[in-house]
Amino acid sequence: MIYNLRKIQLNALFLLICLAPFLIQAQEINSPNKNLALKFELKENGVPSYQLTYKGKAVIKPSSLGLEIKDAPSFMDGFSITNTEQKSVDESWNPVMGEEKTIRNNYNELLVTLAQAKNNNRYIRIRFRLFNDGLGFRYEFPKQNDLNYFVIKEERTEFQLAGDHKIFWIPGDYDTNEYAYTTSKISEVPLLMKKATIEINSQWPIKELAVQTPSMMKSTDGLYINIHEAALINYPAMYLELDAATYKMRSHLAPDAVGNKGYMQTDAQSPWRTIIVSDKATDILASKLILNLNEPTSYKDVSWIKPVKYIGIWWEYFVAGKSTWAFGKENNVKLTDDFSKLTPNGKHGATTERAKEYIDFAAKNGFDAILIEGWNIGWEDWIGNWKEEVFDYVTPYPDFDVKAVHEYAAAKGVKIIMHHETSGSATNYERRLDRAFQFMNDNGYDAVKTGYVGKIIPRGEHHDGQWMVNHYINVAKRAADYKIMIDSHEAVRPTGLNRTFPNWVAQESARGTEFESMGGLNPDHTTILPFTRLMGGPMDFTPGIFQTDLSYYGTGSKQRVNTTLVKQLAYYVTMYSPLQMAADIPGNYERFPDAFQFIKDVAVDWDNSYVLEAEPGDYITIARKAKGKNEWFVGGITDENARTANITFGYLPAGKKFIATVYADAKEANWNENPQKYTVTKAIVNSKTVLKQFLAPGGGVAISIKEANDADMKGLKKL
Question: First-to-last CA distance in the chain?
Fold first, then answer.
């Protein structure tokens, strides 16, 4: 018996030794709450593969990992695992500005080292971080004798989905994110792609069937899945090629002017590939996974980075028919021309007089700043000419007095936001960057809106390629040297870099309010954006349009903004940004002073956020606590369908009473009929209050909640 037992033990030990090389080829980790499970293994021929499950349900089925390299062996196969490391992290950090005062960073990590014996043991690492709300992973390329410089031909990261999910998508395009969203099954994307690829200025649709990230999906078994990337630095943006028959997605990188995807020098790494997943839509919106995967800022002083609520000489260019960016009638100008000799068109918007009117309005209503577009020479032929020397960023038009406007604004306690449109000429902007930023310092500007409308120069580069990715970061870093905040438009979509570069406070990078004057936005558009574009960072959506029927201006336009007035108020809560614009023309706010009060009151920086209810494409209701104040604000929006929002108040301190001012759609309101019909009521609420609130088709609700004494509450009813 003893002999037989020893023989069994020896046989088992021999079997374990024989299997050891194979056992090390598979590794598994769980999320801290055990809901998510990641398995990594090497398949046949040493191909790296991973899979992800949520509460036992397949999120990503076995999917290959790797990269193709130009003129060198690939990082696709022939690997063996030479080392694995695991660790757990649970820490907290405080963003400079954000939806939360404190963010928890809690994950379990697996780091796998993969060597290729056939290539002199050249090796790479794949680092996985599994959070309670999803997975992040990236490729790492350590410095080594046989890996110094290499050119990426294509990244081949796969995402094998488990079924024919509902997907909220826009076409894959190297130069724009400004498409309208389409909602369909994955299998239906090929049939809908042509219709979805509408004409947009400066577009380059991907030849392969592909969609942009963030890609938001919902499975038939109730999982919400979001695929994007984090920490996009020195690397091209990722799109998702789609095999609609097998539901497989595969990474596709933006090329440069000669067709290469990325130029790497070790030590180096890719951005993180992110998969956020939950069985609750509200968890997707609450996720901070992408921010957590970005590096902390290295800025020593961040005191100059502050939230901003602003107005601007902007919307009138789109709708009023009386204003233009350009000063002259000519359509062929050079920066060396004498612009005082141009023929004035009589419609120039950015005049000294007009700027002072906006400054007066801002000062009267408590706004921090005004944006002035069209103040500088060059707008006569700025678009569509692929022109390099298009703006100089320091020379005003003859009717705009920089010094006078600065002094007038300073006396009123109002800041001016600079505008730097590049017309896509990044080379011109970089040459002039320091002079432009010094001009801002000299004249009291501490924030700038940059724009990249048009085809990129260097010619052949794309908005989302490695060269431009590095350009946007360079602008943010150089701006920090001058203590200037950046709001970029038409740039690559964000990937959480506002943590690393907190002066890069906001971006557009999606179809925003300006398109309400150019074909309109579908009523469901803003119920999708928080699940897609805003997953990567704050959006300068420019809400607050009160005059939604644009025929009001007598220009012959039949266009309309496809929301109710109250839905525009709700955007200040549902569309997060520390830079928020009241985008309408000041006179329209003066016509609706009671509704305008909400915009004047609402905060733009927050201690806490609470996603109360959400369903992508249908509705969103969010509550937030103002930074450092006992004030709360609620915003709820719906798509083209009327609904009843279920608004709870459990985030309020228990045992206390508060006054809630409720801005609501009137019963007869509708986005295309009676959009300006609304009610404003006050009532008493506490932490146990539940409000069932009607939202009109294309409508919303906005609520401000403040502490009050007994005298203030006298005569008010409880909700």
Answer: 80
**Distances from the Cα of 550 to the Cαs of 558, 562, 584, 586, 665, in angstroms?**
6, 11, 12, 15, 20
Strand, coil or helix: 189: helix
- H/E element holding 637? strand 631-638
Cβ atoms of 311 and 582 closer than 8 Å: yes
Q: Tokens 């260019």 map to which residue?
A: 317
Q: Are 207 and 186 in contact, with CB atoms under 8 Å apart?
A: no
Residue type, 448: V
Between CA 661 and CA 719 the distance in angstroms is 11
- List all residues 6 or more positions away from 693 whose beta carbon is below 8 Å from its beta carbon: 636, 644, 645, 647, 662, 664, 701
Contacts of 6 (CB under 8 A, 6+ apart): none
Please choose, from the candidates 174, 179, 178, 214, the residue with its C-alpha nearest in 3D space to the C-alpha of residue 193. 179
Tokens 């200037």 identify what position?
484
Q: What Cα–Cα distance (Å) separates residue 384 from each residue in 324, 357, 688?
A: 17, 32, 57
The CA–CA distances, whole Å, from 393 to 16, 333, 402, 415, 435 equal 70, 15, 12, 18, 8
According to the model, what pLDDT value does residue 15 have? 38
The pTM of the full predicted model, rounded to 2 decimals, is 0.95
Classify residue 672 by its DSSP letter: S
Residue 441's CB: how many other CB atoms inside 10 A?
A: 12
- Which of 637, 548, 521 minimizes the C-alpha distance to 178? 521
Residue 24: per-residue pLDDT:
57
Across-strand partners of 151? 263
Q: Let me know how long the chain is.
A: 719
Helices (H), 482-564: 525-528
Label residue 106 exposed, middle or buried (CB < 10 Å: 0-12, 13-18, 19+): middle
Q: Which residues of the chain have pLDDT under 70?
A: 1-25
Which residues are part of the catalytic machinery? 514
d(CA 222, CA 225): 10
Among residues 486, 76, 106, the alpha carbon closest in space to that of 251 is found at: 76
Distance from C-alpha of 185 to C-alpha of 217, rounded to nearest angstrom: 9
